[in-house]
Design a protein that fits this description.
By secondary structure, the protein is an alpha+beta fold. It contains 7 helices and 9 strands. The protein has one domain. Helix content is about 35%, strand content about 20%.
Amino acid sequence: MNSYTEHHIRNFAHKYQKMVFDQDDVCLFIMLTRDYSQPNSIFRELGDFIAHPDEKNRGILINSFQPAANYFDDNSIEFFKIDSILDSPINPPKGFGSLELIYKSLRSIFSLVNITICDYDRNDNRFREFIFCLIFLLGNFKIKINNKLYSMNITYGHHLSLTISYQSKCYDNHYLEFNILFLGNVWIQAPMYFKKKLENHIAKRFSNGILGAIPYSLDNEVFSTDINNFKSGTVWPLFKK
């Protein structure tokens, strides 16, 4: 392994354990470890997204969505007559799979430099912060399904979700929503009806330890780590469980 990559894995592992990392750290970590990830693994897929941010046209995610997209194209009207995709003859798309699979992939990367982290716990704040960063990182990328590019959509509220809205090739304004990643209990006090679409946001670490998403325009040379310097409605935080 390249000595710089090994150094950075160890450096990120330390930040991960101390919960002092942000989206930029996650991006560099995934980018540097891409070539050391197993083929067809989640981390190789994530690295491929960073390598092809404007058009990802193959891989785990697209393979997961393709059968449902094809069925929807061929049966758009009939599809809306059923109660759920579970009632269709296709298997529901899994996106990246469970969060536990992502965690196992993260553990495998750390193990390359003989670093061991604890067993999977969906309530582990360190891993929840990693997924928070990952969602905002992926939210800037596009995937291509059936010759059409789709942007990823981030929705913030009681939970944080990353989705795409796939449009039927036969009927305008007919969409099927694919779930890519989901993080629950992000803002526990939020009304269940509250949903905020966030575009061009980045997850940053503040001096009080909070990880929050801010617009790209505020992530500049005068960025302040004091969350109190930001107006209400400009920082969308991940509240710890």
